[in-house]
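Incident log, structure service

09:12 report received: a user says their structure output differs between two submissions of the same chain.
09:20 pulled the input from the user's history:
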Amino acid sequence: MVEMSAKSENSHFLPATHHKLTVSDSLVLRVYSNTNPQNMKISDLQKGLILSCDGIDVIGEGTGFGVPIAKYSDKTVFSGSSSLYVRRLGDIIEIRKEFLMDMVNRDRLKSFKLKIPGIRTLSDFFCLQYQRHKRLVQPVLIVRGLLFKFGIKSSFMKSPHKGTVIVTYNIDRNRIQVKLNFSQLERANLAKVFILNEQGAHFFRTYSDSEGLRLVDEEIGAWADVTAQSAKIVNEQNKIGFRLKNIEGSRLKRGREMMEGSLNWIGLDYELEPKYCHFEYEIELFG
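09:34 re-ran on a clean worker, output below:
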């Protein structure tokens, strides 16, 4: 971990294994170069900024803030390795995390990798169905729960990497400026890029936006476009949360899944076309 006093100013990035930043009396942000925290099926994947409230991580099975995913025509690629660097610029802490895109998803039946394409894409099929048909959300989650119960589980495995995505987080009090550089990402057959901003669904339970829409728990669904200028997600007491804005050239989506032992995330994610090499947005924290 890199420790820097509030009075020091370092214009050079220093390598780090992890870093902690206090946002308020109750909120702390953490980031790691390894795959901590290792929760549920995404334990082998890299995380972004992790939110802690009163000393307890509230990320659940979420990815944290500012995590890239690259969707190619034949597979979706995640990050399982990274390098982490930290520096201070005046009152601003700047964290640079370089995500190596080197993991793919596979379904397994107990200890056997499923090579049957139809079975291997069950999760993707179910996800697509309840994006298209909101009335199917609960039935689809029940079926996914049964698959999990009978031993068909998703996991991630190493694959030939598709390059590196550089993410820089500038943290100034309760605002996080997130800048992504995709210029080192392999472009051939790249279909979409996603930037995930997720924490735990057990802690954050309410969605609201600038158009007045308010949704709680299962009403939020996964996935749905956010048409409002801005959207926020808060905890049950409406005291802790985060807000993101819709940005021209991207699609902002809301989502939530909660299933004991398997799923526990809620988030506001961006979807980008592959033509973009850079993207920038801001996260506002409450609490």
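09:41 both user submissions now match this output. Likely a transient worker issue. Closing.
09:42 reviewer note: The chain has one domain: 10-104+160-286. The chain has three helices and 21 strands.
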